[in-house]
Amino acid sequence: MKRSKIFIRLIVFVSIVCVLFSATTAFAKIYHLTILHNSDHHGHFTKFSWNGIPDVGGMAARSTLINIVRAEVEKAGGHVLLLSGGDVNIGVPESDLLDAEPDFKLMNLLGYDAMVLGNHEFDKALDVLMKQREWAGFPFLAANVVKKGTGEPLVDPYIIKELDGLKVAIFGLTMEETKILALPQPLETLEIRSVIETSQELVPKLRAQADVVIALSHIGFYETSGAGYRTPGDLKLAQEVPGIAVIVGGQSGTVLEEPEIIGNTLIVHAGEYGLYVGRLDLTIDSDTDDITEYTYKLLPVNLKRQVTYHDISYYMYVDNGYVEDSEVLEFIHPYLEQTAELLSQPAGEALVQLVGDKKIIRSQETNLANFVTDSMRAKTGAEIAFCNAGGIRADIAAGPIAYRDVLKVLPFGNTLVLLDMTGEQIRDVLDYAATIKPGNGGFLHASGLTWTNNRGIPEQGMIGGKPIESENMYKVVINNFLAAGGDGYTMFKEAPQYDTGFTDASALREYIMKAGKVAPKVEGRLTIIE
User: Fold this and answer.
1) Are 492 and 478 in contact (CB under 8 A)?
2) Parallel, antiparallel, or unpaired for β 212-218 and 246-248?
């Protein structure tokens, strides 16, 4: 009898344990989360040519791709987040002329969940940024951008999305170097705080509120990703700030075929211009909040490869091809009509290619840099013109030049500023310019002046073929970005200034129109001894 009672009690105990285990298991849930992302859009809302390959990218094809993925994921019971790594602004005239209105409104139409502020979101006045936020209708994020004095965030530092019980925190990080790379005026009332310190303070708080923490960053992949300046970069962020499950990055144009894994953090980058949409599929255990599985793929947006047969070029998709979304095309059409007539106006003809590719123009003298600085002098009558390489954004191909081409080269709407500078002050400019490393947007181009950079030491400075005289006064023209101390050229702020109101693009266009046919050359204005 005793044995029977003990046996019965044992059975009851085991049964209770099984029931409790089953109940616990029943409450546990596995979540499937898909993150779609792109970065550094730079005004590419319509399809475009890329390295000679026609009709790639564009938001109409991107819309189709995104909705196909959404349909697949939602049918399987998962959830999709669509994120942007910033720099929606600057790069395509049709967008630039309209303050990127079509881009932000299309992002709203495509259903973006959040965007981090990139440095190019500060290329215009803050009221333009606030207007863009209204057009977008989704959160702009930047945890480390605050108002001076109050510490109040300029935009949302983070959001928490709840997806069928899964809480996902997304916070934004804007590169600290924005205060050097963007026009100073929009940043006068703002402070851009340390990326690492901000994250170290914020992430533990978000971990207490959410199951998964995502950093939406515009700080670049490597520490050398800051347009020639040192930046923490996503690798260092992951190393120094535990608790971030995923870093969705931007700024550096990095194309990662597979996530970079640092500790328990996945880092993903999908290049620039919307050429790819990154797709990260996560399986998340609700008990532990751990990512138990992941897959990643870069989805090309109508990228093609060239096949030549009998000297004729044919093109085939490198992956799937996507039919452009008719609703998006209909939305785009009025904007293209609005800008087409102005942008198609002819300016002249290039007899040679004018080189503005950033891989070249940020490390050596080019014919286009010479032409741009010459046009600045011609417009203002200055003796010397200086231009930062980062202000020149595109080549001009040999052949007809339209106003559109000019605006691609000089998209920022910078104005020309005249300064009276002594020879000693000009030497200060060259002292600083000589320290700028190749690849940096602050790499200096000039007209009316020649000099040698001998391992970081300026030598043989000549103005109009004569040595620089310390006490002489010289009339200098620069863009308003440099005039405000941009790219670290603070010495320009010390000289008397007059903003002419002429834009650099209008000066270049006028210079081309007067010449008709242009073939500028590399003339030895800058000699670099390494």
Assistant:
1) yes
2) parallel
Roughly how many angstroms between the first and final C-alpha of the chain, as a whole number? 98
Closest CA to 277 of 53, 33, 36, 34: 36
The per-residue pLDDT for range 436-471, each reduced to its tens digit, is 999 999 999 999 999 999 999 999 999 999 999 999
Question: Nearest-CA neighbor of 57 among 220, 313, 257, 271?
Answer: 271
Asked whether residue 266 falls in the same domain as residue 355, the answer is no
| Comparison of pLDDT for 49 and 528, the residue scoring more | 528
Show which of 288, 303, 336 is a domain's final residue. Answer: 336
How many domains does the structure of the chain reveal?
A: 2
Extract the runs of DSSP E, i.e. beta strands, from 321-361: 346-350
Q: Are residues 451 and 432 in the same domain?
A: yes
For residue 255, give the DSSP letter: B
Residue 191 has pLDDT above 60, yes or no: yes
The domain spanning residue 357 has which CATH number?
Answer: 3.90.780.10
Q: Is 14 part of any domain?
A: no
The answer as to whether 16 is a domain residue is: no
Are 380 and 500 a contacting pair, CB within 8 Å? Answer: yes
Tell whether 6 is covered by a domain: no
Q: How many CA atoms lie within 13 A of 528 on its CB side?
A: 14
Beta strand ranges found along 175-273 (DSSP E): 190-192, 212-218, 246-248, 260-262, 265-268
pTM (2 d.p.): 0.81
Note down the domain range covering 253: 28-336
What is d(CA 120, CA 222) in angstroms, rounded to the nearest whole number? 19
Whether the CB-CB separation of 349 and 518 falls below 8 Å is answered with yes
How do 517-518 and 346-350 pair as beta strands? parallel
State whether 363 and 492 are in the same domain.
yes
Query: What φ, ψ does residue 238 adopt, rounded to 5°?
Result: -65, -35
**Does 151 lie in the same domain as 229?**
yes
CB atoms closer than 10 angstroms to residue 90: 21
Cβ-based neighbour number of residue 408 at 10 Å: 21
Mean pLDDT, all residues of the chain: 92
What single DSSP character describes residue 430?
H
For residues 179 and 247, membership in a common domain is answered with yes
pLDDT at 229: 66
